[in-house]
């Protein structure tokens, strides 16, 4: 069943979009990521222009994350205070990111930048998470080995401290604020919730327990991506509603299934699965960039005439 997407100006199969939405929804429920880091490249692969994919995907993340958060709130695994601090940073970052996106769009460089951002970030984060998870799995197999957890690092010595009861932390508000700003900028440029950066940052930088991280990450993602979508829709006019609705329906159903699967798996298993997926998408995108130089240059040359 082919449908025509008016803003993207392409025809795609409606069931394919529903399936993609469902798959990404499952991931969002399992890992606490908005799923945009997988969905946006998948949309590139089926022919959706990057500028439209970024703005529309932000829309779908809001729904699947909201669906996931409801499931986590029931379990009391959301640190609302930490989520709020991350959110303040995220909104500032999203506003800056949309400005940058608009500047690049007017310069005609946005498609290449979005793809390059993906390759760089997915490569770094996927690699780090993969090696860390392998270490954690090895440690868990050694009988009587206690998990080595650095309780105090330089982050714990920064000023303006706050108590985050759900996470059992007493740290400065600056690290979560800075993490929030960074994730907000990425949300605007890459059409992602930023969960794939937020989740590792919350675990390794802020020292939050894994079970609280997923719900808290989704809580922050909802508001930052909703704000990003609004800004893209009003400044760029690149949000394709037909595309968004199909992805949304799949995403909401998928998120509920994913939350149930995630509850049954160990934290290390979840992290290594996520890392492998991140690296796979990174590899595919990098290949696409390397295999299409002639096309990219001819487009540039054509634009120059």
From TrEMBL:
It is found in: Cell membrane; Membrane. It is a multi-pass membrane protein. GO terms for cellular component: plasma membrane. It comes from the Bacteria. Keywords: Cell membrane, Membrane, Transmembrane, Transmembrane helix. Its main location: membrane. The chain crosses the membrane at residues 12-31, 37-59, 80-100, 112-131, 173-206, 212-231, 238-258, 270-291. Belongs to the 4-toluene sulfonate uptake permease (TSUP) (TC 2.A.102) family. PANTHER family: MEMBRANE TRANSPORTER PROTEIN MJ0441-RELATED, MEMBRANE TRANSPORTER PROTEIN YTNM-RELATED. This is Probable membrane transporter protein. It comes from Halocynthiibacter styelae.
């Amino acid at each position: 069943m082919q449908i025509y997407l008016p803003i993207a100006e392409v025809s795609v199969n409606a069931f394919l979009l529903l399936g993609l939405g469902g798959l990404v929804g499952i991931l969002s429920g399992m890992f606490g990521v908005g799923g945009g880091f997988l969905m946006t490249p998948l949309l590139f692969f089926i022919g959706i222009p990057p500028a439209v994919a970024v703005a529309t995907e932000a829309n779908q993340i809001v729904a699947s994350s909201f669906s996931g958060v409801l499931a986590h709130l029931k379990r009391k695994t959301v640190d609302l205070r930490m989520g709020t601090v991350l959110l303040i940073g995220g909104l500032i970052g999203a506003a800056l990111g949309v400005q940058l996106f608009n500047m690049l769009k007017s310069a005609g460089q946005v498609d290449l930048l979005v793809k390059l951002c993906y390759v760089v970030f997915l490569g770094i984060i996927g690699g780090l998470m993969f090696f860390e998870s392998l270490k954690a799995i090895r440690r868990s197999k050694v009988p009587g080995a206690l998990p080595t957890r650095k309780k105090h690092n330089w982050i714990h010595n920064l000023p303006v401290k706050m108590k985050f009861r759900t996470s059992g932390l007493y740290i400065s508000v600056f690290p979560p604020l800075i993490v929030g700003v960074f994730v907000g900028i990425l949300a605007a440029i890459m059409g992602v919730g930023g969960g794939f950066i937020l989740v590792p940052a919350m675990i390794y930088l802020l020292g939050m327990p894994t079970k609280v991280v997923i719900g808290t990450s989704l809580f922050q993602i909802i508001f930052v991506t909703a704000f990003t979508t609004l800004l893209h829709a009003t400044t760029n006019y690149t949000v394709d509603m037909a595309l968004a609705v199909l992805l949304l329906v799949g995403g909401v159903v998928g998120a509920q299934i994913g939350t149930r699967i995630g509850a049954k798996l160990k934290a290390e298993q979840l992290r290594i699965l996520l890392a492998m997926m991140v690296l796979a998408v990174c590899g595919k995108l990098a290949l696409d960039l390397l295999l299409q130089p002639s096309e990219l240059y001819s487009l540039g040359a054509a634009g120059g005439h």
